[in-house]
Amino acid sequence: MTSKETPLRVGLIGAGGNMKLRHIPGFREGGNVDLVSVCNRSEASSRAVAEEFGIPRIEPDVETLLSSTDIDAVCIGTWPYMHSALTIAALEAGKHVLCEARMAMDASQAREMLAASEARPDLVAQLVPAPFDFKSWRTVRRLLEDGSIGDVREVHVTVLGGGALDAKAPLHWRDRTDLSGMNVMAYGIYAEIVSRWFGPTRSVLSHGETFVRSRTNAETGEQTAIEVPDSLGVFAELERGGRVTYRVSTVLHAVPSEANGISVYGSAGTLHWFPGDTMAFASLGEELAPLEPDPGTAGQWRVEQDFVDSVRSGVPVILTSFADGLHYMRVIEATYLSRTEGRAVLLSEV
Hints:
Elements lengths: L7 E6 L3 H14 L2 E7 L3 H11 L3 E2 L3 H6 L5 E4 L6 H10 L3 E4 L7 H12 L6 E3 L9 H9 L6 E9 L16 H4 L6 H12 L2 E9 L4 E3 L6 E3 L5 E8 L4 E7 L11 E6 L2 E6 L3 E6 L5 E3 L11 H11 L8 H20 L3 E2 L4
Helix pairs in contact: 1-9, 4-5, 5-10, 6-8, 8-10
């Protein structure tokens, strides 16, 4: 914990879109945080970010940043391939860590990150959470806990769009297994939300297809083969009972907006959650009606402030802890194994 009167001194590792759009403004909006330095992929890109946001120092490499005695915490905004090594090094250097999602390349790396955080219980280790249900997740949990939904029978997760339809678009880091690991499209985000609402997953059975099989790497000009699916189907079994059906695709044209979202079908009621974080609910035998979040429960993006609060006063990390991150990474790896080995996979195997 640090004094509320003393500025929390933060170093930034990586400075991509989410760092500039969310994390830098978020740290500054919370107050009494000093953004001390930044280390991006090159000196030129580090300097550009430092000048744009008034950050006083750039670092030549991550090792220099982590060894700096005037930095208390780091925000890691790189692609997943660096998350594990950077997080472990930062914790070993005595820095609090806020790490961008997805947590890691696979469950093994996530497990190593959790172990490193448990070895330093005096330090805060937090993942940037899936943000789509900030307003509603507490209400969904209440509906599950008070019996309004009843026994969960089926959950349908539908995430369909055409973001990858243009075969001439350049290679994205999400298309590269060397940068993204076992993560696939937005699947990990929704697996995290499902875990947040329903608890652990017991098993998965998956199938994927890659329709756009290569793209041009803008840095090299070369055609690069793609192994990451752009269409994925998953059947999952929850430990609490009930099955989850995921349909995720980025190669579909003219998908109706009402097709996407999460539907929960229980023995006592039905809940529909829609992108934009709105809900509709119907008790058994009744008509669907809009459902507002329970009074006082609707959250919003305050990821950076939550991190600072945990550092300053020891408030437990809720969204998202490393333990919760490890679970969704186990779901992701089990899905990968099922897809590549053609079998159902128990989470206990991962």
